[in-house]
Amino acid sequence: MINVLFFAGLAEKTGQREIQLEHIAGSTVEQLKEKLMQEYPQAKAEMSQAMIAVNEEYAEKTDTLQERDTVAFIPPVSGG
């Protein structure tokens, strides 16, 4: 099982702060992102620009997910 965390606007758009996904281990970060953009089309714009961390380290889109990983989607932050 993979634990997925959504922060800020992504949590609002998806209506979830955290979800668990089965049968995702072995997928790449990019494949997970594509799956989630299909599942939550209302969050697609923010998700496409989000930084992604796996186990508290920023991840590359080609990184492979392992069982018990925690993946965090962190949307861009603006302010001034």
From TrEMBL:
InterPro entries: Beta-grasp_dom_sf (IPR012675), MoaD_arc-typ (IPR010038), MOCS2A (IPR044672), Mopterin_synth/thiamin_S_b (IPR016155), ThiS/MoaD-like (IPR003749). GO terms for cellular component: molybdopterin adenylyltransferase complex. It comes from the Bacteria. Pathway: Cofactor biosynthesis; molybdopterin biosynthesis. The keyword Nucleotide-binding applies. One of its GO terms (molecular function) is nucleotide binding. GO terms for biological process: Mo-molybdopterin cofactor biosynthetic process. Keywords: Molybdenum cofactor biosynthesis, Nucleotide-binding. Heterotetramer of 2 MoaD subunits and 2 MoaE subunits. Forms a stable heterotetrameric complex of 2 MoaD and 2 MoeB during adenylation of MoaD by MoeB. During catalysis MoaD shuttles between the two heterotetrameric complexes. Involved in sulfur transfer in the conversion of molybdopterin precursor Z to molybdopterin. Belongs to the MoaD family. NCBIfam families: moaD, moaD_arch. This is Molybdopterin synthase sulfur carrier subunit. It comes from Salinibacillus xinjiangensis. The lineage of its organism: Bacteria, Bacillati, Bacillota, Bacilli, Bacillales.
